[in-house]
Description:
heterotrimer; A: mainly alpha; MetI-like fold; two-stranded antiparallel sheet; flat; C: Rossmann fold; CATH 2.40.50.140; six-stranded antiparallel beta sheet; 8 helices; disordered C terminus; binds adenosine-5'-triphosphate; binds magnesium ion
Amino acid sequence: MKTLWRRHRCWLWPVIFLAPGVILFWGVIVASSAQSLAISFFRWDGFGPMTWAGLSNYVELLHDPQFYTSLKNNIIWLVMFMAAPPLGLAIALLVNQQIRGMRLVKSLFFMPLVMSQVAVGVVFAWFYDPTNGLLALIFKAIGATAPALLSNPEWVTVAVVIAALWPQVSFCMILFMAGLNNLDESQIAAARVDGAKGWHMLRHVVLPQLRQVNFIAIAVTVIGALRSFDMISVMTSGGPFGSSNVLAYQMYEQSIEAYRFGYGAAIAAVLFVVMAVFIAWYLHRMLRMEREGA
Amino acid sequence: MYPRQIKAGEPARKSLYLGSVTLVLFLWLLPLLAIILTSIRPAADIAAGDYWGWPSGFDLIANYTGVFTQTPMGRYFLNSLIITIPSVIGVLCLSTLTGFVLSRYRFRGNTLLFAIFIGGNFLPFQIMMIPVRNLTLDLGIYNTYLALIIFHTAFQTGFATLFMRNFIAALPGELFEAARAEGASPLQTLIHVVVPLVRPALAALSILAFTFIWNDYFWAVVLSPSDAVKPVTAGLANLKGQYVANWNLISAATIVIAIPPVMLFFFMQRHFVRGLTMGAVKG
Amino acid sequence: MNDLELNGITKRYGDTTVLADINLTAKDKEFIVVVGPSGCGKSTLLKSIAGLESIDSGQILIGGRDVTREEPGDRDIAMVFQSYALYPHMTVAENMGFGLRMAGRPKAEIQKAVKRAAEILQINDYLAMRPRQLSGGQRQRVAIGRAITRSPSVFLFDEPLSNLDAALRTQMRVEIGLLYRRLEATMVYVTHDQVEAMTMATRIVLMNHGVVEQIGTPVELYTNPRNRFVAGFLGSPRMNFISTRAVEVADGSAVVDSEGLARIRLDIHNEARVAVGDEVVIGLRPESIRLDGQGDHQLSARIGLIEQLGREAIAYLDAAPVRAIESENGLGHLTAQTDGRITLRRDDAVSIGFDAADVYLFDAEGKTLTSARTADIRSEPEMVDA
Ligand SMILES: Nc1ncnc2c1ncn2[C@@H]1O[C@H](COP(=O)(O)OP(=O)(O)OP(=O)(O)O)[C@@H](O)[C@H]1O
Ligand SMILES: [Mg+2]
């Protein structure tokens, strides 16, 4: 036994180290994702027997106007969320000064990230409140009546996304701050000697060095946009009349509230495909960067 | 440093700068300030529809004790701690192990394994809802702490593995070769070399993981419908429905639930940016 | 018995062969220096000996024991890395005692071994410090101290001095030499610095593209290089190579001729490898070219550049139509090394001379054809008495 261990320990150790993480991750995350795809081919209420449904869930999806609304809203989320990286960079640049007290200022800028999305949602819902909210107050001050943003099908998604951007910008800001900390001083100094300033410096010297951070910031932003759930649940529950719904929330509704697990899983599958495209792009870029770096 | 640093000899510039930063910060934190203000506002103000003016009195203690006496927030708070702390510890342990192996051992399938950790973590986790719910039902842990602990540990391990693997890969390889040449077994290398060197990464990761898990709402709703195990986020959402008129209480509760991640953040801030720089940004 | 024996070591990364059939026997207490151009596989060879890289075929014996499949820790070796590889979170003493601690040795023993090593390297004063508080030279000492603590049979060094400045490098070089005499262990030392190779080695292993080009004492390699690569690699400035043609091959000698050079008759050891009319290359070391015109052969030249180094001077000579191939300055100039008290200036015309006995002849494949000569250089590094 002992000699067997001695002979094989060089590969047994790494296997033992990997095992718990891999087993848990595969057993819960990978298996569930795969199973979700499988369930989408069944009709199932979550309790009784599952009946084979073939592609009928998907066919129904294609004829479901709510699906298109959700998809459209997901795209609005994605597009509007893309404002987070540049805004995060702007704030990071603003606070990147070594003056006494700046450390506290930086930490305060992080606060929205540390707060839960539920809390953010609760607060913004209150802001948007047409009778007592801050927005109402501002409109009253200029002699107008505040629109009821969260019950307006046109504006509701935009209003929710603005609330969601608040923590997301903080997240990007943290990443860019770490990136700015890590700039190559000699390149900056050399560019200064060559007379580069302001925008030119940012564009041609700083941003190229922030490529890696940029990449991560965009990745977390895309993921954040496609995962949007908490805010919608807290602020609008998808309403009014599904006009602020997104795929993730619609899936939850269909499964937990309407007991249509197969149909929910089909929505999940669509979300999965959208995300898979992005993940493939991410992995491709990351592995390429790694090979270049090595 | 970019942008150009303000020098000591430019007091006017410095004041201008500090003034503008303060203004931006004020606007940025306006939502937070509004909640803080409301959280110390007397209930009478709220009843009178005075949400935004200067409070007629300061009911800080009354409101904050109210959170714990008038609502089940105390219970939720405890639940959140019981769920979050073991999950964070689990994530740190598992990801140190996986990150070490994936960054330091060459074997076939290494990249694939790593890619699956990343890919799995990037998925909108809502798509796992149905099978995860069934899994916990089958294991008989649905509506218990364990269900949430297991899910959060598993899910965050994906992200944490990415983080730790990049961090360890950025460490000088000769340190690990030296340990091996000195006769340290992989376990000894892990304990005596890897763990001390990855402390900054663990600090950064613990903040992120804590924040993510503490603030989770989706799984709280899906896996723990009962008050006995419900964490603060789901609790707050409930509160919003039940105490519509008591904005001062809801605001105080919002502040209360933000306290643990904020404190953790302030304690470990120094390590946080350093760990993040090495783990995420360099990697 | 601390012999090290490598039999047919082969290592591949995918399709590229990094080490091809390396054979080497290092006797007990030998100081083997492995040199070669960057990327030739020196580090890979060292890591294979250490067991940090697995090999595709071949056998490694240390002290007569086959360790090919053993873990590095069980091979009775210690390795010193170029970047020192000190653990930043441990004190100097902890760094040095790490190996013994991992082996579960008693505290007292570890302390004694650390103390002994620290005394040898004179780093007692730093034992409680962390690596980042030390200078480069001190860190290197600690790294060596860490190796000594384990008293291994074979020491492996991977370019240990290349991160140090010139003065410190010379000092450490001498110290490692002394250490070697004191420790009585077998050492394998990788470097790309030929001064280190020439001064420290009992034998040099010269590698190129994963192949051993030649193994021998420094003087042997210098005076009797087996081929043009070895001849060109050792010696600074490099040997001058001039392309010529064989015009006569007979009776153990060959005559070469080319424009501007008189016919030169050279003793060769293998007539079969050259035929009349073959393109061949002759080699002449810079110190064999004399600027006073003395010698069996003369040719006229113009001084292109003088590099004055004080004790000696390097002259770059335009001897057109005679041109050096792969010349140091890329202009086809011949390089000559002379006394520093030279009075010649740039553009002066000189008559340069050399002896046929100093000329090397290489065949078309680069193999040395001229017969072996006896070294007239003394001061061979002596081996420790066994
Ligand atoms: N992990 C690896 N994968 C693929 N090729 C490698 C790997 N490690 C080294 N090589 C290749 O093997 C060859 C030998 O590398 P090695 O590090 O042994 O060279 P070296 O002689 O030590 O060079 P240097 O003097 O620059 O240190 C190089 O061509 C290198 O590109
Ligand atoms: Mg090397």
